[in-house]
Amino acid sequence: GGARTIEILQNGIDGIDQKKIAIAKFAASLVETDDTVFINTSSTALLVAKYIDTRATIISNNSRIIDCQNERLKILLTGGNLNHPKLALTGEFALNNLNKVKSKICILGISGISFDTGLTTSNINEVAINKKMLAQTSEKKIIVADSSKINKAHNFTTGDINSFDILITDKDADDKFIAQLKSLGKTVYMVDY
User: Fold this and answer.
1) pLDDT tens, residue by residue, 152-168
2) At what angle do helices 43-51 and 15-29 cross, to 10 degrees?
3) Order of strands across the sheet with 137-144?
4) According to the model, what pLDDT value does residue 16 have?
5) Which among 185, 191, 158 has a CA at the least distance from the CA of 30?
6) Which pLDDT belongs to residue 78?
7) Is 59 helix (H, G, I), strand (E, B) or coil?
8) What is the Cα–Cα distance from 70 to 129, expressed in whole angstroms?
9) pTM
10) Long-range contacts made by residues 185-189, C-beta under 8 angstroms, separation at least 24?
11) What's the CA gap between 190 and 175, in Å, rounded?
12) 140 phi and psi, to 5 degrees?
């Protein structure tokens, strides 16, 4: 046995959180001054906003992103139906608002990625939002996923294997899968944590 305080876990001391933090920091380093960035409801994608150290506009369907507010970030919420437990904003209202904007960068967290099913999520309400964010992005379509999500599939498909440009994962990701992705011309970063 043993015990740790909730504060320690929230600061990412346990192994999996350290992976997510390392991935988020690297993704944040790809954001340039005055970029507009889509961020979805994934916990890893949300962490990216915390580590962006330049002036940027964030458009998100993650209502928890308001906790990342600072003087550098302009945050726009998509609006929409509020879904628990992730406090995700979804539905027609959110989609209609996303139809009116373009973004240079999209940073999506996913539940799984595989060659058979592509990008997948466990939440059906978020599929259309994730697809729309990818479709409305002009340059960098970035997937942030720790190694536990690599070569895994979940219930609902957000996009095929060709719907993104960059995967940021950790050094423990399946080497064979990563090599296959690279052979398709994908850029893959495997961060240390």
Assistant:
1) 999 999 999 999 999 99
2) 50
3) 73-77, 56-60, 35-39, 103-109, 137-144, 166-170, 187-191
4) 55
5) 191
6) 98
7) strand
8) 25
9) 0.90
10) 189/26
11) 10
12) -95, 115
Would you list the DSSP string of 107-165? EEE-SEEETTTEEEES-GGGHHHHHHHHHTEEEEEEEE--GGGBT---SEEEE-TTS-S
CB atoms near residue 169 (< 10 Å): 28
Q: What is the CA radius of gyration of the chain?
A: 16
Q: Could you tell me how far CA 101 lies from the centroid of its own chain?
A: 18
Q: Coil, strand or helix: which one is 99?
A: coil
Q: From the centroid of its chain, how far is CA 143?
A: 6
**Which tens digit of pLDDT belongs to each residue from 90-125?**
999 999 999 999 999 999 999 999 999 999 999 999
CB atoms under 10 Å from CB of 66, counted, come to 12
CA distance 62 to 49: 11
| Chain segment 26-47, per-residue pLDDT in tens | 999 999 999 999 999 999 999 9
Task: Say how far apart CA 144 and CA 109 lie, in whole Å.
Answer: 5
The dihedral built from the CA positions of residue 164, 167, 168 and 174, taken in this order, carries a sign that is positive
Let me know how many helices (H) and strands (E) the chain has, helices first. Answer: 6, 12
Q: Give the SS3 label for residue 189.
A: strand
Amino acid at 21: I
Beta-strand pair 56-60/137-144: unpaired
